[in-house]
Amino acid sequence: MQSPVLVLKDSLTRESGSKVHHANIQASKAVADIIRTTLGPRSMLKMLLDAQGGIVVTNDGNAILRELDIAHPAAKSMIELSRTQDEEVGDGTTSVIVLAGEMLHVAEAFIDKKYHPTVICRAYNKALEDALAVLDKISMSIDVNDRSMMLGLVKSCIGTKFTSQFGDLIADLALDATTTVGVDLGQGLKEVDIKKYIKVEKIPGGQLEDSKVLKGVMFNKDVVVPGKMKRKILNPRIILLDCPLEYKKGENQTNAELVREEDWAVLLKMEEEYIENLCVQILKFKPDLVITEKGLSDLACHYFSKAGVSAIRRLRKTDNNRVAKACGAVIVNRPDELQESDVGTGAGLFEVKKIGDEFFSFIVDCKDPKACTVLLRGASKDLLNEVERNLQDAMSVARNILKHPKLVPGGGATELTVSATLKQKSSSVEGIEKWPYEAAAVAFEAIPRTLAQNCGVNVIRTMTALQGKASLLHANGENAWTGIDGNSGEIADMKDLKIWDAYNVKAQTFKTAIEAACMLLRIDDIVSGIKKRQAPGSTQPSKPTIETEGDADNEQMIPERWPLLVYATTWTTILTVIVAVTSFAPEFAFVWAIAPSSSFSQVCQDQKEGSVRVPFDVPSEIFCLPAEMFKKSKMDLVVPPIFAAIVVAASACLVRALGLWEVDDVED
């Protein structure tokens, strides 16, 4: 009988087949169920407690999922799905998780019926193509210059957020900020970088209505010398630097030996002249404000204050970039490279204000700012954090509309239309792909069904009425604008209620959800316990394994024999040391072995002639060696090494006999 072959170590676990599919589907459904109640205007809130005791109260899907400590790999991929959606379009993080979970849920029945995952994925991809075609058909173009319509769209998109009662204010802030930093690239293209050129500054205190968008930037800095430098300048000339205005330290350590006292004054004079030269190169452009990302020496501050120039030092690079975008300045690395075109003249006002206990610098009233700051005021930090999250979503929606000015109906109307269209087309799908294709059509109804559940209405009656209207309108060749009013749960026309979604948000939601579902369905094997990759040359040798015929899993033999190996090695070392000592001190020449029941209280009482007395407690079994063997003679340098070699060889034979030492031929 052939012995089994061990491929994976015992520390590795492997799961395969339908068991993996069911585990992945259940994990994905669990993640979807966590945030299912956070969809819609009547969504519930989640309270999250972190390890430091902090509390986060939010209904933002991405904010909830990124705080969770998930163990299952499929659940981790779902969380990554939400993060990707947030980075791409900034909205729809909850919808994409709910839709992906539903796609996997309806696929579970086909897995039980032994459908191949490739067949299911092929049907899902075909359904995705048809769904995107439906989106193109029902989408509506808008005019981005129509502010009222833009505000209504942004407001409807953030109506599901916790701060929906402040929808008008947040929509105004988001639209003002995105239109400020938008750059027209020509040929109908527009760049809106909200992460780089829009900064949200949260200052507790005041009311939320005091929040505003600054046509410029603000940062938490004061002038270097408050008593001598101006804190308010109209139409300032601004110079931005990325270099220190202090004495340059050498790269290598230099020692100078001063013989005369006047030499010290010469060194100080050289340093002063160097800094003075830097300041002269800057002051010849007659600036009103100098901002540097690096240090600013006291001597440079003296020259600037004497010339009536305000200075700010150690500003963050991101803030410095925003200042450059706002006032039209160019950041310079060396003062001797300054030109007149590098001076920023686009700002209308520089002012330092004290808010609370801190000073803030404002560079505002810019002529054509391509960077801005959103100043948020509120009663508490928790409120400000939630408002900031909702504002980020609103700015993402406004950016998406500016880049792709197309709308689709909200309130689940788009999903119902897609579902009705796919159900009708499923009859034309050939082969066994027809049933997964139809199941994908049913999965799209998860969004309106979840909205109805969160409103507290009768879900079965509401969904039956919606499906009937959607099918009737689609059969007549009309676009179905019928959806669910997320506030009341009633069936209504989304066009009348002005409830919209951005086209690219909805398209990205469909793509991400179906592609993620297909990816998880294609996983049929999970191997856990794999070691992390190490740098080349730093890998440690793996633990040796011992395989015997008929027992391939004999890896545990080494841990069982390890005490015996330690025992034999220890006594071999002790005996060798004793033999070596006897060559120099024959009066202490003795060797003993310990039995398991030995007692250390027994003393050797025998004092035979020619033997050596042991002056301390020894084990019960004592082997005294004749001292004459080790007396000084011509063999002094020969006998101890020979005896040591005999002891080592005997111990090695013992170890080999016990099977503790295996000698195998290793081929590279």
UniProtKB/TrEMBL annotation:
SUPFAM superfamilies: GroEL apical domain-like, GroEL equatorial domain-like, GroEL-intermediate domain like
Record-annotated membrane-spanning stretches: 564-585, 637-658
Biased composition (Polar residues): 536-545
Molecular-function annotations in GO: ATP binding; ATP hydrolysis activity; ATP-dependent protein folding chaperone; unfolded protein binding
Functional summary from the UniProt entry: Molecular chaperone; assists the folding of proteins upon ATP hydrolysis. Known to play a role, in vitro, in the folding of actin and tubulin.
PANTHER family, sorted: CHAPERONIN
Protein name in the entry: T-complex protein 1 subunit gamma
